[in-house]
Each structure stands twice: as structure tokens, then as C-alpha cells.
């Protein structure tokens, strides 16, 4: 009987084992950590609907393309979250991207297919029935094999009980597991950090009651996540940090001697720092109240020492000096408010959609800026053409998941009601001059130091104010110098400079700019101007073009000077670096200039030789400039690329309708479509300054061929050698250095050679058949050279007016204001008696630049007569080439 029972149980056991083996497909490796790509139709549909509102942009998903095809993919999140684990699984599977089927430390029960749950339970029972230990997915080799088979995994860096489980109970640490696995295989393992954002708002230092109960927006608890998903799913978005190659990490010099556990600690720190810095690059630093910032600034050791000295020198108490400093901080400081930023973004979006035809942005470079922002605070430096500029930059950054910068704004913009609005959206206010306000200057520099130290991004306009001429103004380096001083004083290890071009088909302030250029007084900003601005909403102003330049690292710029940091530089070396950086930024903005149809047609109109010209004559000029732009691969507006003829035709039509140019016909033209093609044009003299503004929008592109063309004409021969042009080119570049910032990184020879090649491509010149480095001007080429050189005529005439003033008033001492009035009066007389031809030469800005140039060359008295005669001869010589 006993033998029968043993035989019966043995047979039953064998049959049960066979059945279990069949059900489990011959392997005990069935775990809840595995969530198969193929699940039930219902669960698949429900998960897809549940997460459908969460955004993952294509730009972010493109980062996954950096992972080699043979790599093992492992996703990483900072905090353990089944919400995120299910999302990445669902969304990536739907996008056809390798989804995380394996979860280190995650056990999926609810969404598993019933057949899998059955197998997992049977596998567990099998282990218990037969006295086996329950298999661990890592130690059993299961996860390693699944990863080698091409599946992806996911793990979290921080868990509520993670330290206890990993380092006390000695559960498998996924990072240690991956490092050990990497050392045994040839294929690289890539860890891809994932971040989910429930809000763009920066964190507050002091949590609210809601934050305490339901978790912060940066780390919400389950209820807050669910509420956000149901009410504001469109505001939840995902960012992907740069993938980390584990094999490359192990090979780093500082890691070569580390054992596996030390490597795991180092890699964990690396990933956490990367995720935290990436998060801060989107939400910005922790927000503090103005009172807290004020306290930190005033109690700083540097300012306290200064206040003691200041109080002693003026015989006042430290308390009184501190009160003045506190008032200055109130006058300066931004009071950025996330709620106001959100409303502001909606308003700017409405404004842009109402009066513009869209915004073109080079998002590929913006993504580079975003990646670089993890290294330190970003200093955005746009050109300044319109009040729309600072609204637009903040809006674009906010829309692309970057924090709104703190914007340096003139104190003239602090009027009610815009002042408080600007403060709440990031503006801090600065006086136009610090003259006589030494304490204000010190407090302002300490405020800048605090912004940089806290890690806030800053936006400044290097021109100091809006350009009234359409081209870049000379750089004003005061604020840039303060920012460099902050870095020198230890506020940050590195900062990133981002030059930024902003262009418009048409600017809102066109009329006021022309008024100021021609000598009119600038009207101060006030509430009445806001009321008048309603008329702008009834017009359309074309497109806006925004182009970010590749970011410049301060640490790298300093390293090029053979210095490890700014602290190692002398103040003289730092000042030189600041000037070079200013020059580099201006040249970078110029290099990003985009040519619009309005700028192209305005350039052709103003460079026409005749007072009255045909459509064909105008098109000849336009095509000459287009040939040059194409040969130099200059960035063109979309409208020029898509349909060049239509874009040009529409701009000519708009200039006719706007009375910029007058139209007439020699014969009656019945066909409306042929009205322009058969017409003759004449520029409205009262609109020349406006056309000059739009011409100057792209003059940075044409100034080098203009210098080269005039240097060729100066030879006064149909044959020349390239080396003959260097002296003429260098003179023009130096003479107009206040108008066009010289490129300190390239020589005149570089630009001469570059433009000679472009002129050869357009048959303007041809190489000599026998003489090396020698060229001949073609018959049509002479005409085209004059076209290019006429870009300079306005400036030559403006400088001639100023030189004539110095010649006439050599011995009179005048204030700068009186001197400018007399120059303007003289210019008007010279225009009336036809000594100068162009009305746009009567430019206040050109006059001021010319005055600075001649004074810097010691022309401001009787002893300068010899220099005056020298420059007068040169000016007349060049103008003769431009007149004939």
C-alpha cells in the first residue's frame, strides 16, 4: 500500500511537472517585472486614451535617434512612478519606438494579460511546491537575456524605500547590474533619462498647503497627477535628456580605477545631476520673494563693506545707506510671477496672430541652446528693432519649455500699467546712465551678481536701445561687463551667450523711427501711447524671423586666452575679452541675418541709378543681389524660397500702395496683371528714409561686397590684382567701423577673396587668361559693381556733412547737443543746394557716428585742418565713383 501511494504521488508529481512545464513553455522565468508589448485590446485602448493628452514633441523623440541600432536601451526616471512607467510603455509603443517592457523594481499586475498572470502564479507555486527559491529576474539571468534579445527596460534612480532595499537588504541595484553586464558584452548599453513635467512653473522656496498635501508640481502625488491629467492633460509634457553610453562612462579617465560598486554610485550621481539640471533648464531656479533677494543682497559681505565706506564718506548712518540700497533694489528688481507669465504668453500669442503672418524660428539651434543651458545661466543677446522683441523672446522660450529670462529693460518702460506687468513677467529696470549715482551702480551690480548666482537666464540688448536705422548699432558693453564681473567673483562656473537675430517684414514703429532719424525728438513711453497703439491691430505687418546663433561658452572663450578662469585674468585682459565678446556677438547676429523680400526690394530701389526707371531695370538690380545671396548661401525668407517672383511682385505692389514709390505708364495698359511689368517707377522723396530702414535690415550681408566693389572701382582700371584691393578695403572697413562692426576673426584678404569668387560666379569679373591672381571687369560687371558700391553712398554723404561742419566750425566750442543741431541744419542746406543727393543721408544716427569717428581721429579744431583736407579728398574721390 505504501509503495502504491509513493508510486501514485510520484506519477502525479511527474504529470503535474509535465503540465507545469508545458504551461510555462519549459522555463520558470515568468515575472511581473515584464510587461509584454502585445497586451489585450481593451487594456491597450484604455491606456492609450488615458495618456493621449500628454505631449512628447518630435524634437524630443529625435534624441532617441542618437542611440545606435545595436545598443541596449534602458530608460531612466528620477522618481519611481507607475504612472510614468505605463506612459512610456504606451506612448513609445504607439510611436513605433522601442518601449520599456522590463521594469527594474516595477511589478505590473493590473494590465497584464490573464494568460501571463496565470503563468507567473504557476511559476511561483511551482517554486513553493518543490522547495525551490523564488527566482530573481536579475540573478537568474532573465533580464540580461531579454535585453540582449532586443527588449528595452526602465528603472528609477530614487525610490521611497530604495536605499533600504538596495543597500540594506541588498536587492539588485539596476545601475550596478547594467555596469556588470556592460563589462561582459561588446554591445553598448545606453541609459536614456526621461522627465515628465506637470507644470513649467519654477519651484517656490516655501511650499503651499496644497503642495504639502498633494505633492509639488515638480513631484506630484497620485491625486494631483490624476487631477492634472483629467483637467490639464495638454500641459503635461515629457523631455528626454541626452542618452548616456555606459561603456564610454566606464572608460572615462576619472572612472578607470573604480570598482563596480563605486562606478554605480558615480553613474547614479551623474544621472541625477543631469536630470536635475535639465529640469532647472525648463522651470528655472527656485523662485524667491523680492524681500528675500533684497535681504541676501544687502547682507552680502561685498555690499556691506561698500555701505560702510559709503556711509563714512558721506557722514550718514549705515542704516540710512542700507535704506537707500533697499529702495534701489525695489526700483530695479523683477517680481516674476508664474501666473502672470502664463497670461502674458496667451496675450502675446494673440497679438502675434492678430497683426503678423507667423513666426519663423530655427528650432534646431534653439534645442542646442536648451541642451547647453544645463552648464550655467544663459545670456540671450538679441538685436533690438521693436518693442515686440522682448515679448517675442520670452514667448518663444516659454512655448519651447524654457524659463522666461530676466530682461534688462530701460527705466522709461516702468510706467503704469505696463511697468508692473513687465516686472511680473521678468523685466528688471535699469537707468540709462549711472552718472553721479555710485550707490545705485553698486547695488545694480550686486543684483546682477545675485541673478547669475541663482542661475537665472538673462536677456540684454547689446545695442542699448532699439535701432532706428534698421541695422545693428554699436555695442554698449556696460551690462555685459557686469555679468562677466559676476562670473569673475564666483557667481557661476560657466555661462552661455546666445546671440539672436530678430527680423520683421515691417516694424510697428516705422513712422516714429523715421521721425527720429530725421532729427525729431523721441516721444517718451506712456499710457497714451498704449491707447494709440490700437490702430496697429487693424494692419498686417508680414512675418517675423527669429534665428538663434550657436551658443558660446564663456569657459571656452576664456580657455582660448590660455586662462583657466576669469579670476586668472587681469582686469585689462578681462576688459579686452569683454570688447571682443561684444564684437563677436554683433558679428554673430549679423551672420544670422535673414534677407526678406521687403529688404531686397528696398535695396534695389535705392541703388537704382536713375530717378525714373522701368520694371525691368528694377528687376535687373534685384536679380543681381539675388545671385550674390544664392552664391553665398545666405538665409532667405520662406516667401523668397517658395515663390521668388510672387514675393517680389507683392512687395513692389505694397510699396506702390503705401506710396513709397510712384507709378506711371508711358502707354495705356489695359491688362491689370501687366500693370507693374509695363510701369515706370519713381521713389517718393518723403519715403526714402523708410526704404533706407528696410534696406538696412539686410545691409550686413551686402557691406563686404560693397567694400570690395568700391575697392575695385577705386583702381580706375578694367584690370586689377586681388592684392591691389587690400588697402582700399581696409580703409573702408576702418572708416565705417562705427557703422559696421569689423570682424576681428577674419582678415580683409578673406573677404576680398570671398567676394571675388562671388563676382566671378556672376560674370562681373573674369580671371585673366595668363596673369595669375589678376582679373578683368566685364562690361555688365562695371554696372553691377556700382550697384553694390551704392550701399555706401548714404554713409559717405552723411560723413561729408559732418566733415564740412568741422571745417566750418573748427574754432567753436559747442555742446554735443548744439553741435548736432548745427550739423543737421548744415545737412539740410547741403541737400537743398544738391551738394548731397540723398535725403536719407540726413540721418541723426549717421551724424553721431561720424562725429565720434572724426573726434577719435583728432579732428575737432584748427589743428585738425590737415586731417580734414585728407578726409575731404578721400570722400570726394569715393563719391565721384558713386555719382557717375
Describe the structure.
The protein has 884 residues and is α/β, with parallel strands linked by helices. Strands 7, 8, 9, 10, 11, 12, 13 and 14 form an 8-stranded mixed sheet that branches. Strands 1, 2, 3, 4, 5 and 6 form a 6-stranded mixed sheet that branches. The chain has a 3-stranded antiparallel sheet with strand order 15-17-16. Helix 13 (290-298) packs across helix 20 and helix 15 crosses helix 20 (438-454). The chain is globular. The model is unreliable at 162-170 (pLDDT under 50).
List the helices and strands and how they pair.
Layout: H1 2-23, H2 41-50, H3 58-61, E1 72-79, H4 82-94, E2 100-103, H5 114-129, H6 142-148, E3 152-158, H7 162-168, H8 174-182, E4 189-197, H9 209-214, H10 222-232, E5 237-240, E6 244-245, H11 246-251, H12 260-283, H13 290-298, H14 301-314, H15 318-332, H16 338-355, E7 359-361, H17 363-372, E8 378-382, H18 388-399, E9 406-410, H19 418-424, E10 427-430, H20 438-454, E11 458-459, H21 478-488, E12 496-504, H22 510-517, H23 527-532, E13 544-548, E14 552-553, H24 554-559, H25 571-591, H26 597-606, E15 612-614, H27 615-631, H28 638-642, H29 644-657, E16 661-665, E17 679-683, H30 688-696, H31 699-714, E18 719-721, H32 726-735, H33 748-761, E19 765-767, E20 774-777, H34 779-789, H35 793-808, H36 816-832, H37 844-856, H38 865-883
Parallel strand pairs: 1-3, 1-4, 2-3, 7-13, 8-11, 8-12, 9-10, 9-11
Antiparallel strand pairs: 4-5, 4-6, 12-13, 12-14, 15-17, 16-17, 18-20, 19-20
Helix pairs in contact: 8-12, 13-20, 14-15, 14-20, 15-20, 16-18, 20-21, 26-27, 26-29, 26-30, 31-32, 31-34, 35-36, 35-37, 35-38
